[in-house]
Here is the input.
Amino acid sequence: KMWATFAVMVLFSDSVADVQRLLGCFRSPRSELAVLEVTEVLHCMATLLCAMRDRSIPISNRIHYNIFYCLYLMENASGIMQPVEEGRVDFGWADVKLTHEQQRILNHKIEPGQTVKIMAFAGTGKTSTLVKYAEKFSELKFLYLAFNKAVAEKGKRVFPRNVTCKTFHSLAFGSIGRHYKEKGKLNFSKMSVFSISFLLKNREGQSLYVRGKTVSQTLGNFFSSSDEEICEEHTPLSFKNTQGQMQPLSQEEKRINVEEAKEIWHNMKKLDGDAEKKYKMTCDGYLKLWQLSKPQLSGYDAIFVDEAQDCTPGEL
Here is the structure.
């Protein structure tokens, strides 16, 4: 009856805040439910709602969004972990015992060259498990890599001292990007389609703005790849013409795209010459240069990669 009541209250919630307030009730010392029990029920509900949508059962997307986003916030809003007794972790709720899966992770000592993947839903304690892992193997040095500065800064507050928390871009900036900043050639945002179109020559066929879009996509695909050179595989398959219609990119247009993207990339990489400052290096650009330099992250015994499934081939 308790879980049925809980499910009904979640289903009738109007917003994410409603679900959060409901979950807040379980923080009460009088609550006998553990955080993992609650998140498991929420995940089951979210899975059921997805299955219902796949079978074309008319339900509101709002319900699934409320549950899923609430789980996401739970995963990314844990506070600083305090030292607790062996075998227990403070998740910001009542203390709960480590699950069998979490204990297996803590019992495994990483070996040089080994890759270990932790696959779990949001809110199930992936980050907390990494914190406990770093605490257990305090003699090892870890590098925690995140995608944005806020997550990295949070990591500095949560992880013990044997963990260095950085973003991918901060590593690349320290090695490559800072040189472009010193020369006044660093653009902290992406090159706009408008600015790229001004760097292109007039040709028959696509308009300059449309070509600017396809060249921008070509550069973006190259930056995300693990490839060392720009090639036709990085060009988009299709583009939207001036009439708003999608049409495939011809072989000749692909060749031109590659040629123009290579020229822009060549000029972006130049550090000398004031005349080339219109070709400023971007954050993704110096990250690509860092990847091409094949950096050796020495000084660390293991690397924690946050949300590794979202990494591009270039980052991996």
In short: The chain has two domains: 1-137, 192-279. The two ends are 47 Å apart (CA to CA). Residues 78-96 have pLDDT under 50 and may be disordered. The first strand starts at residue 88 and ends at 89.
